[in-house]
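#structure-requests
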Amino acid sequence: MTTSARPFVHDGIAFGCDYNPEQWTPDVWDEDIALMREAGVDLVAVNIFGWSHLEPRPGEFDFRRLDDVIGRLHEAGIRVNLGTGTASPPAWLTRMHPDILPMAEDGTRRYPGGRQAWCPSSRPFREAALRLAERVAERYGDHPAVALWHVSNELGCHNALCHCDESAAAFRRWLRNRYGSLDPLNRAWGTAFWSQTYGDWDEIGTPRATLSSRNPAQALDFHRFSSDELLSYYRAEADVIRSRSAVSITTNFMVTAHIENLDYWSWAADMDIVANDHYLDHRLDDPNSELAFAADLSRGLAGGAPWLLMEHSTGAVNWQPLNKPKAKGEILRNSLTHVARGSDGVCFFQWRASVQGSEKFHSAMLPHAGTDTAVWREVVELGGIVDRLGEVAGSRVEAETALVFSWESWWATQNDSRPSKALGYLDQVHSAYSALHSLGLTVDIVPPGADLSSYRLAVVPGLHLVRESEAAAVTDWVADGGTALVTFYSGTVDEDDRVWTGGYTGPFREALGIHVEEFAPVEPETALHLSSGATAHLWSERSRATTAEVEASFADGPSAGHPAVTRNAWGSGSAWYLATLPSPADYRALMARLADEAGVRPPAVVHGGDGAVDIVRRRGTDASYLFVVNHGSAPIVVEAAGTELVSGALIARCAEVPAGAVRIIREEAAA
């Protein structure tokens, strides 16, 4: 289902926040709004978790406080991103309908006290939530302050996979619609294995915890169903709003390192503007590279159009094992990296730091320590810079490299039974992306089967689950002259999680010119050495080249003597295959070879520094904009000419970018 898009209209780059006035008294609201104006805030999300305040008792609605808050914001010239308030049900609702509460895979209920304590398939929940959404939309549908509608909040963050009886019934309905009858379902799930064949629809449940490993095809379909079920819920709320308001509608995605349960490729077309929440994940080796990846993926979901950074943080979050504050200037660098990669907004969670509740140690634009703080001064500085970037809004990012990303492959790779528990889909994706990012190459993230005709280089990391048509989209493009890299564990199974036989690269096999016979993973800490002098880890394969040239072989380990890196001429292009996970430096060197072969270059030439830099070009109708974000500890010089938007300085040939600084250059027409 898609709807005619309603563009999100905003003057320039939005600068905003999530605001929870229900946590504060009206005298604090006045102070907050005055400080928002000082900081340059022009878009505020409210009523995200407002249900118990708007409907304190069943069917009794009280909008006085929300009316007051929206009125004050409007009077101050601040636009509203209005939540429907349905993200978490009030206590009275779960008391009346305890079956609303979600059930974990072990068959136990999860109770109120947190958030998202609801089953996506629950009819009582949907009825109550849609009733609230209807009342909110009727009241504010034509309000001049409302610039954007915000359905629920971070859908599926906690409750995407519910195993209750109502979810099981909804799963069966979804399966009937997908397969029509039990025979194709039994074939798709391979139920001949372990005597699992189903003879009646009522025999089928959700993949709850078992004494052994579960049916992986059933688990895969349950992920698909769960994503679709929450999408149907989003559509139900959006339909209620759409009939009562002409304003853009969206919800905040979670394109980040730890959220896997929603296939956002199937959601994106329903968004009037794609919005994303992103937080630096310090559990990763390279959080800045993952930030760039998430921004590029958000842009990919938007089809290359501008998107909206709905949430990020000024400092530490509250949910990682070690919650680190940001370094001096990091708020600016993080924010403008998102803008460089296509966001037409910079918004934070949250405005004022909470003093109670689970998120009281989550950072905010206005911290506990108040305005006499480094964080507040950096927020005000950022607001001024964002205000000077208005002309960038609406421009699009230029990229010559595509990376194929698949939620289905993520689900299938993470299933119970696989060759190595150390193997993770995102390990492959992030490693490949980081190698490209370290070279300064701009990357578009695209879905399997995407049209690659506008790209010179394509990277296909760990595409474990692939349809024949999706593989053909890559191999046919290579035959037409493209350069592609396919990495290990790709082309292993089809859409039913059924192994492609005849060699593990499946429908990629002929174009790659290799025959993979056997996987040979190793312990993550075990070093593998290649004949080229490169080092690698995690994975090896026993294979042989059929038509491919062997660029490097395993020099040791369980696959010694077998190809590790191959290149096959296929039509007018070349198809490379990587059978292991190289060290970061060696992966970078390999990507440099491919980029050189494909004729892909960074957006600008950089001299000096330590390599920790983001360089991205956005091009508009009348001008192009070169973003240079120096994350490193040494200054760099970038070859560019034009006007630097932050300072207004004219640049003749080169711009110096100090360590930790950002430059945005409106380029001369020749760029």
